[in-house]
Design brief:
This protein is an alpha+beta fold. The chain folds into 2 domains: 90 residues, 2-Layer Sandwich (Phosphorylase Kinase, domain 1); 224 residues, Transferase(Phosphotransferase), domain 1. It has 10 helices and 14 strands. The protein has a 6-stranded mixed sheet with strand order 1-5-6-4-3-2, sandwiched between helices. Strands 7-10 form a two-stranded antiparallel ribbon. Helix 4 packs antiparallel against helix 6. The longest helix is centred in the middle third of the chain and has 21 residues. The two termini are 28 Å apart.
Length: 342
């Protein structure tokens, strides 16, 4: 793990009250079962996101401590940065860097659903998220299992740089240690079936959940979605069935169907490997990140040789920010609790 991580700063309550105009409702970025996230402006004009939790039970206090311990040790461009915390209140508050473009969940499923999202942007978000998880699994010491990988827990920064967040369900593993969980944490639709059955949390549990995120990126469907008849369906199950029946096109987002079929097939095959029912058959996160790097590199080469509407290589409106009035989550750190299902 990096030796150059800044020390977590201790903020006073007064500092955070001043930064948020006394936690004014106009500063809310997101609200969930665990509390509210506010946009704050510090004295040095830096924008931050402040997680103001509700009264916590013992389990939530453990999550709070876990998040501070883990994030204070992590230094990676694709992991949200913890700046500090405030301890002089009944329920401690966490202070993070402010991420300007909301969550991947909002991008894929929010009010701007008609917005065109280029294939390159989707591949970039997938690759960077995978690199963050690969870092947690392989470069952090001890290894860290995220435990709740999903699209609401991937924030989007400038130029839609991916930032993995919400480490409340995370676990640090000593070498060769097995983490048995008495209480399964996570979100329906993303949960590793093997973890659900055996209560054993491993790096491969994150790999499965990432596979579902990859499906969201190429299908633009919810992890649990409604079909035309209004019936609730599991995206992973529907996808695996489509692959088995050689009808991948039936489930892919129509906006990317016109692009390289072979490349889309490769992404789909990678997702299929991540979604294997047996953890030992899933690739390592480092292998997933490497495969995505290779796929994206080849796609960008194709773009240079044959410029098409993907030439911009980013979202159609990448030069502009989200309109706060349209999404309600400008600078959102709502991924910290909202949609968490925990």
């Amino acid at each position: 793990m990096s030796k150059h991580v800044d020390t977590v700063r201790i903020f006073t309550r007064e500092e955070l009250e001043n930064a948020t105009n006394n936690f004014d409702s106009s500063r809310e970025l997101g609200r969930g079962g665990h509390g509210t996230v506010y946009k704050g402006i510090l004295k040095d004009s830096r924008e931050v996101a402040i997680k103001h939790s509700k009264i916590m039970n013992v389990a939530e206090k453990d999550e709070f401590v876990q998040e501070i311990i883990i994030l204070s040790q992590i230094n990676h461009r694709n992991v949200v940065k913890l700046l500090g915390c405030c301890l002089e209140v009944e329920v401690p508050m966490l202070v993070y860097e402010c991420i300007p473009n909301g969550t991947l969940f909002e991008l894929m499923h929010g009010k701007n659903r008609r917005q065109f999202i280029s294939l390159d942007a989707r591949l970039r978000i997938a690759q960077e998220s995978a690199e963050a998880l690969a870092y947690l699994h392989s470069s952090a010491s001890p290894p860290i299992i995220h435990g709740d990988v999903k699209s609401p827990n991937i924030l989007l920064g400038d130029n839609y740089t991916a930032k993995v967040t919400d480490f409340g369900a995370s676990r640090m593993l000593a070498t060769d240690e097995i983490q048995f969980m008495t209480l399964v944490q996570g979100t329906i639709g993303y949960l590793d079936p093997e973890y659900l059955q055996e209560r054993q949390l491993t790096e491969k549990s994150d790999v499965y959940s990432f596979g579902v995120v990859l499906l969201e990126l190429i299908t633009r469907k919810f992890a649990i979605y409604s079909d035309g008849a209004g019936e609730k369906k599991n995206l992973a199950s529907s996808f695996l069935l489509a692959m088995k029946e050689n009808s991948l096109q039936s489930i892919l987002d129509q906006h990317i169907l016109e692009f390289d079929a072979e490349l889309l097939q490769e992404v789909a095959q990678l997702a299929k490997c991540c979604l294997s029912m047996r953890g030992e058959e899933r690739p390592l996160m480092t292998e997933v990140a490497e495969r995505l790097r290779t796929i994206r590199s080849r796609w960008r080469e194709q773009l240079m040789q044959n410029p098409i509407k993907e030439t911009e290589c980013l979202l159609e409106n990448s030069s502009s920010q989200y309109d706060p009035s349209s999404t309600g989550h400008h600078g959102s750190l709502m991924a910290l609790d909202l949609e968490s299902g925990r």
